[in-house]
Amino acid sequence: MYLMISTYLKPLAEVDAARADHLTFLAGLEEAGYSVTAGRIDPPTGGIILLDVDTEAEAHALIAEDPYVKQGLAAYTATGWHPARGALAGYQRIRKES
């Protein structure tokens, strides 16, 4: 899994103007089984998406399609993560491998 942590590069009003497209993008990731959870950082300076992928390259390839990235509104860093405790301990992939 990879935590994709974004930082907004433009004023919040510009980011929010593209939010509907970003949320549609996230819904697609969820439907395909790639996104485990996502949300905005508080205060709203970026956000976090937890992706169920095996490599950092996969994470970056998926996130490159985010409207925020395509419009230069946000940049993401990737941090690999293996949940060992709590609600996600023992998480099972829901995406069917092709």
From TrEMBL:
Signal peptide: none annotated. Residues 1-77 form the YCII-related domain. It holds the Pfam family YCII. InterPro entries: Dimeric_a/b-barrel, YCII. Coiled coil: none annotated. Belongs to the YciI family. This is YCII-related domain-containing protein.
